[in-house]
Amino acid sequence: MTAFPPRTIRLDALAYGGDYNPDQWPEETWEEDARLMLEAGVNIVSLPVFSWPLIEKTPGHYDFGWLDRIIDLLWRHGIKVDLATATATPPAWLVRQHPDILPHNVDGVRLEFGSRQAYCPSSPVFREHALRLTEAMANRYGEHPALALWHISNEYGDHVPRCWCPTSAAHFRDWLAKRYGDIEALNEAWGTSCWGQNYTDYDHVEPPRTSMGPINPSQQLDFERFSSDALLQLFQAEIDVLRRITPDIAVTTNFMSLFKELNYWDFAAVEDLVTDDAYPDPADPQAHVPAALNYGLMRSLKGGQPWLLLEQAPSAVSWRDVNVPKVPGRMRLDSLQAIAHGSDGAMFFQWRQAKFGPEKYHSAMLGHRGEKSRSFHETAALGAELKRLAAVRGTRVRARVAVVADWDSWWGSAAPDSLPSQRLDWLEQTRAWHGALFALGHTVDVVQATDLREGYDLIVVPNLYIATEAQAQSLAAFVEGGGQLIVGPFSAVVDPTEKVHAGGAPGPLRDLLGVEVDEWWPLPDGQEGTITSIAGRTPTLTTRIWTEWIEPAPSAEVVARYDSGVLAGRAAIVRNARGRGAAWYVSAALSDDSLEDVLRLVLESAGLPARETADRDVEIVTRTDGETDFIFVLNHGQTATSVTVPAGALDLLTDVTASGPLDLPGLGAAVLATPARHPKDFPTVTISPKNIEV
Ligand code: GAL
Description:
Layout: E1 15-19, H1 28-39, E2 44-47, H2 52-55, H3 65-76, E3 80-84, H4 92-97, H5 124-141, E4 147-151, H6 166-180, H7 183-190, H8 217-245, E5 251-252, E6 254-255, H9 264-270, E7 275-277, H10 288-300, E8 307-311, H11 330-340, E9 343-348, H12 374-386, E10 396-397, E11 401-404, H13 407-412, H14 426-439, E12 444-447, E13 458-461, H15 469-480, E14 484-487, H16 510-513, E15 515-520, E16 528-531, E17 541-544, E18 548-552, E19 557-561, E20 571-578, E21 581-586, E22 589-590, H17 592-605, E23 618-624, E24 628-635, E25 641-644, E26 650-651, E27 656-657, E28 661-664, E29 669-675, E30 686-688, E31 692-693
Parallel strand pairs: 1-2, 1-9, 2-3, 3-4, 4-5, 6-7, 7-8, 8-9, 11-12, 11-13, 13-14, 14-21
Antiparallel strand pairs: 10-23, 15-18, 16-17, 17-22, 19-20, 20-21, 23-24, 24-29, 25-28, 25-30, 26-27, 26-29, 30-31
The chain binds beta-D-galactopyranose (GAL).
């Protein structure tokens, strides 16, 4: 038997499988399931995610009979289990016994039992029962050879990321008291002297509810932090139980990509393996671009360690207004994209398509037509193919560029009704900057400003609304050491209590960026403006949504000026040399093309290539173990293309050594194994007919 290092997934292949809900089927089906799973190359399934009510039918009495039988059956077939602690949704009896565990919405309306996640994250009753179940699960299955990984709860915050019930309100007050101590410290942090908000006792403090006018933004921000923490505490409580009983088994909870409500840096820090559920919309031909950003985050959450795509749809989902299926080949390519970006496997929701319930029209690996279904054929084909990629497991993704993602800034810059403009959306901006980097051929990591690992040449900060001294110091050290830094508008405006930095923006980044912001100049809806060509070599840039009146410091070079509207003639983009590198500030929100123009220049300063006339549908991502590079060439477009690859590269998917051009059909892919190159070098893959070097 393979000996696995402690707290790593106990699997010696790329993970392949899906959520499995055997309790929705008669036991006679199980043998067939196991047989077909093997046929499809499945080596791991996630269960029993929502089965608490079947395991604990009456309080404190656990019936593991059916679960024992299915886990044993799977194991007899060599299939491992990503074992859910089953705490994702409480049984009806618990809710009826303790109606207080139900969450309340922002208007104080209690959300009724009848869906899932019917619990308030702060409920001590829910927690007590959930931990008791976790303990029972750990005692029962901790030694089972099929156990590969603990799957705690499910998609924390998917349905109930925030709760306004009295229990949550009390928990919020405790959280605040721990953070601030004396009530006067809270008054100071929240700036309660504005609009007569002063408190004399924590008992008077409430979560931000529907109110008569704009809510105190500091109160709002702390509620976001608290709500993320409340679920984190629940997660940690389950982890503690599992670590005590099964200290060597890895734990995870499945994330939901870039999910605003939970600060995934905090969640990832306490778990062993990052797992993600990704549902790119098949109706969107560009869905692979934000997917690449999400995957960049997933691999970066634990410093580049491989992660795992735990859920994706084989074809259509059931929760969009219109649920478009994936065309043949799309699911395969989406899976390969996740693997290219560091996932050590590809898993699905779900194994067998449901016959009832809200997800009966959601696709599954085994569709309603069973082994005749298209999804079964496609998932079985992929299962076979993934065996060819075994060598990729455990390798790391190469990236020279990273984007900063900061949840405080995301939350703070979304404060309702108190911003210069409600249009500057953190996620949209982050996606736009990343999209430009993607178009220019770059694989992009996602990092925290305070934790910039070695090896990046360019750090892109689309928005850092809330900035601290520590972040500024880390970014300055990066620039001084030779890096290029580029920062987007409305950054470093306030401190972590939402107070404007002394002297205005960009507060702690002022020296580094060589600029002061005098006034925000947001653009009315639909209005665009222009910025003169930068460095005399690019076309005019287009501004949208946001511009700023800035004053460059004497040390800064004005790279481009506004040339329309009130700001015409004033500086728009500045560059400040510092140490061996430089910091750039872009004071406007730019159109996608303009972002590319700016980034092209910055990439050049960073000594990094940018593809000239990009065939935007072809993505190239490299994983490496230091000896071999695995170059994933992914044609996200529907039309065929041809690439010229390094001589002698072996395409692992076909086992053919490339010589000359390699034809890629629409949605086609190649995974090329070549000797590892220097970390600074880029793969020489030429995409014809447009002749792009990346
Ligand atoms: C996820 C969830 C699964 C299933 C899936 C459907 O959000 O974790 O249980 O509901 O969506 O797409």
